[in-house]
């Protein structure tokens, strides 16, 4: 047996004799000389073990102010990055309440009834992300070169900027009691007593505001200028290359300045004008000519001409046709594009005139060619929609399938137009223009109308894709009504093929395209 000596400092004994006084109190007693023979106390004194155990206390649990789930599936957190599958130090994974690590879709509805549990609340951050930018060279913080800046304001040039701006303006407009259209995410409508008071349309960071009451309109402008850094440009006169002339009886929209800029850009400002954009009965193919044209210049011409169709719907067919050869254009295609520019030279002052009306009726016209494409024998569908006396929606596009007959091509075109009509009816409903009656679509083929109204004709329609038969449902529900018109009354014929000068001008005027006499500017 071995014995080891131990020593205890005298001040520790005095600490225990006096009932475990604190060492700071013992120092004060010693300095005042209240106790004789009290040894001096060191500055670096160890804490007494008895004091640690005797003076510790158990605090009550903190009161949880936030709401907590008390049942299974009462609260579920979702996020792009979680729940994480990485196990913690004790081998467990992230779990909020239920003890489950993953969520699976139910194979049968009866499983939910057997478990008697349903999701009550779903919490998500809507997939938002923080935006970071690298430190610029020459302005890096010494010692923190590997760190990035967290962005507080969206800047042009960042891919996150449009989303950040839309989220900001969307929240503000909803706060101001605007209703976002379910059919067009950039359309907002504010109503008062079930009547449309204000309409706001967004295009990136440009806003178009429409209102019947000047007081509400002016107040909205003031509120927006207080909330955002913006400029009030007043009554719209120029927007995205379009010139708008607002008059008492209507609105005239043209692209005169843009058309002149195109002609100047491609050195066609002094070219000899022509009366039609295309030559009658002239067809084009990808194999037209062996000599290739400058693809970059050709694409630039066609891209510029396509934007002209915003106010010139009669150019849709020519622009759509020539755009099919942008991959490898030949000199034949380039010559057709130059003729197109020569026609623009003669129609720079033409535009759409929208007459003022209190209410209107939505109508559509649909037409197509049949297997006119030399390369793949596909047809081209065209439609226009008018609201009372003016057209405001049009399209010309090659069909995705090869139609085996003219009737089938017409049936496919009619279905495409019907889909557009359903969407337009919803937009008009959002802005207070309710369409109580079925929307009439004029078709110049009785057999196509018969197929849409009579689903029994299985023998001649069984090969048609099922999606094109959707027109039968909307026709049956009286949202759409197909009516026959003669080929002479079909105004969409101008968007189907190249026409002679006389026919072209007649149909162009029926589309609502007029010439405005502009005064020479000083």
Automatic annotation (TrEMBL):
Pfam families documented for this protein: gag_pre-integrs, RVT_2
Domain Reverse transcriptase Ty1/copia-type: 131-279
Signal peptide as annotated in the record: none
InterPro entries referenced in this protein's UniProt entry, alphabetically: DNA/RNA_pol_sf, GAG-pre-integrase_dom, RVT_2
Domain GAG-pre-integrase: 3-56
Name the UniProt record assigns to this protein: Retrovirus-related Pol polyprotein from transposon TNT 1-94
Species assigned in the record: Cajanus cajan (Pigeon pea)
């Amino acid at each position: 047996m071995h014995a080891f000596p131990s020593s205890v400092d005298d001040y520790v004994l005095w600490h225990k004799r006096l009932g475990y006084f604190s060492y700071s109190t013992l120092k004060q007693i010693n300095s005042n000389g209240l106790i004789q023979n009290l040894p001096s106390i060191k500055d670096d004194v160890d804490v007494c073990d008895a004091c640690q155990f005797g003076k510790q206390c158990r605090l009550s649990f903190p009161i949880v102010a936030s709401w907590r789930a008390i049942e299974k599936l009462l609260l579920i957190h979702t996020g792009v990055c979680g729940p994480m599958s990485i196990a913690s130090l004790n081998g467990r994974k992230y779990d909020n309440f239920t003890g489950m690590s993953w969520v699976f879709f139910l194979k049968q509805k009866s499983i939910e009834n057997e478990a008697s549990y349903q999701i009550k609340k779903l919490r998500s951050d809507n997939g938002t992300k923080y935006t970071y930018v690298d430190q610029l060279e020459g302005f890096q913080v010494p010692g923190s070169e590997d760190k990035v800046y967290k962005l507080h304001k969206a800047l042009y040039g960042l891919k996150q900027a449009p989303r950040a701006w839309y989220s900001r303006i969307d929240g503000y407009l909803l706060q101001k009691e605007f209703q976002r259209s379910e059919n067009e995410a950039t359309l907002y409508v504010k109503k008062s007593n079930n009547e449309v008071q204000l309409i706001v349309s967004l295009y990136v960071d440009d806003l178009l505001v429409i209102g019947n009451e000047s007081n509400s309109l002016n107040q909205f402008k003031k509120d927006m200028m207080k909330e955002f850094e913006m400029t009030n440009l007043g009554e719209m006169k120029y927007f995205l290359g379009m010139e708008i002339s607002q008059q008492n009886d209507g609105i005239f929209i043209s692209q005169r300045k843009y058309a002149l800029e195109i002609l100047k850009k491609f050195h066609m400002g002094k070219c000899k004008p022509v009366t039609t954009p295309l030559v009658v009965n002239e067809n084009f193919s990808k194999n037209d000519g062996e000599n290739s044209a400058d693809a970059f210049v050709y694409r630039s011409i066609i891209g510029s001409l396509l934007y002209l169709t915003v106010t010139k719907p009669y150019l849709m067919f020519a622009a759509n046709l020539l755009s099919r050869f942008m991959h490898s254009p030949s000199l034949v295609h380039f010559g057709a594009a130059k003729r197109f520019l020569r026609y623009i030279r003669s129609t720079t002052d033409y535009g759409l005139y929208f007459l003022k009306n209190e209410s209107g009726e939505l109508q559509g016209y649909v037409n197509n060619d049949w297997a006119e494409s030399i390369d793949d024998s596909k047809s081209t569908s065209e439609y226009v929609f008018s609201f009372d006396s003016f057209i405001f929606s049009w399209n010309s596009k090659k069909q995705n399938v090869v139609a085996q007959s003219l009737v089938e091509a017409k049936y496919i075109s009619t279905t495409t137009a019907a889909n557009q009509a359903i969407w337009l009816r919803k937009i008009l409903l959002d802005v207070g223009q309710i369409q109580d009656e079925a929307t009439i679509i004029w078709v110049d083929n009785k057999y196509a109308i018969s197929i849409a109204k009579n689903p029994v004709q299985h023998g001649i329609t069984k090969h048609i894709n099922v999606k094109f038969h959707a027109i039968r449902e909307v026709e049956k529900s009286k949202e759409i009504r197909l009516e026959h018109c003669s080929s002479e009354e079909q105004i969409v014929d101008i968007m189907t093929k190249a026409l002679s000068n006389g026919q072209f001008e007649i149909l162009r005027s029926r589309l609502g395209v007029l010439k405005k006499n502009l005064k020479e500017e000083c």
